[in-house]
Amino acid sequence: MAGGAVPQGSSDVNRVEAPVTLKAYLMCAFAAFGGIFFGYDSGYISGVMGMDYFIHQIEGPDATVLTSTHKSLITSILSAGTFFGALMAGDIADWTGRRTTIIGGCVVFLVGTALQTASAGLGLIVAGRLVAGFGVGAVSAILILYMSEIAPRKVRGALVSGYQFCVTVGLLLASAIDYGTQDRNDSGSYRIPIAIQMLWAIILGTGLFLLPESPRYYVKKGKLDLAANVLSRLRGESIESDYIQDELAEIIANHEYELSVVPSEGYWSSWLACFSGSLFKGSSNLRRTILGTSLQMMQQWTGVNFVFYFGTTFFKQLGTIENPFLISLITTLVNVCSTPISFWSMEKIGRRPLLIWGALGMVICQFIVAIIGTITSADAAVKTMIAFICIYIFFFASTWGPGAWVVIGEIYPLPMRARGVALSTASNWLWNCIIAVITPYMTDEDKGNLGAKVFYIWGSLCAICFVYAYLLIPETKGLTLEQVDRMLEETTPRTSAKWVPHSTYAAEMGFTDKNAGTHHEHVTKEEV
Fold this sequence. Notes:
The chain has 528 residues and is mainly α. Helix content is 71%, strand content 0%. It has helices at 22-32, 34-48, 52-59, 68-96, 98-118, 122-150, 156-181, 188-207, 215-220, 224-235, 242-261, 267-272, 285-301, 304-318, 324-338, 341-348, 351-375, 379-408, 414-443, 454-472, 481-490, 505-508. α13 packs antiparallel against α20.
């Protein structure tokens, strides 16, 4: 590994990072802004598909609703694009950098949005959402990777949760704009909500030119001087400070340790490295890949995107609701107001308990909605169902919504982190697509006509999420990404919360004097 000197770090496992600065908060907060156009792009389509003018454009002047086939196609085609966009983004992020990949994703998204804005029929809206999906997939995967790699460990969970908060803000903005344009009797009813999302991509893409690249990307590329400079900028400390030297030494040592365990040279061998190791060994790449991809699958199994993708048409189907657009706006508002709770709870309570108890709360709410919907359709019953749907969204937004993204950003070692996060995000979008395809056929009156009974399905799947979280989710709060690697080697998920750091990779790889605990002069990689 060429590109600069390898620092000598201290063996003090508790002194790895500098104090958190306002600058670090602001950098991560801006990166989280990308969640807005992810959320907005997912959310605007629910209202648009309920607009009379849009329905007439797609189905003809006499139609009152979209067919199940067209509703399924329009909704799911975005997720199909995001699946492939997320998969490709892992390679691109390792070749060109995390920041460059996100900027490129914004450009692709703008092209897709322009196509949708120009649409006057089914063909162009579908093509535009497919293209935009490639951009959304790349951004949604690499933003989580980028934020996890630059955020200080003490607040990493809170800052990555900020991404999910921005997703909820995007959903709220989409619902509000849909609500404002729903009664227009021209193409502006749907073109305005579509076109506005260009603004979010322009802001994010432009702003990222001012942010630094991930220091862990530079370590992976062997550019150690650049890694030190970026780390110094992120932490607000001089390059020569003990904090920067300790953290950089640990990143380098962890990277070399992982390469010594599972070499990943060559394109195909690096992909195969994601699936190496034993399924029953917590630190194996295979175990981590399955954990990350299944966690994102479970997040989709909670059924929350049913509410945000098809909420407007579902509330119309209940019959007694005068303004389903307003109810959809309320559900997104609950989503926004609930997510900031995770900023505190993710670091104070931890990832594991939040995912366990969040799943249990969703199970209870969903079965209540399903039971009420089965027994009666009276006005009071519908209002009660809506109330419990809002409580269900509260449980999701404060636990599984941000929690799944936080955990996948933490569990992968540096050599495979970009691909691991990409695979996990692709899993999210794959199941997002599957749910978007099949849900109209389950719930629409001319198809399965499940109506509120669909919550029996979501409730049963959330029960699986509860068992899954109890058995398989490790606790990662308060640890550096390198310490997470060590914790996964030495514990099981149910004992992970009790684990404390007891050594460093820097010491074990010979980057420091294990006994002295003091810094030495810089040495070159060849000397190490």
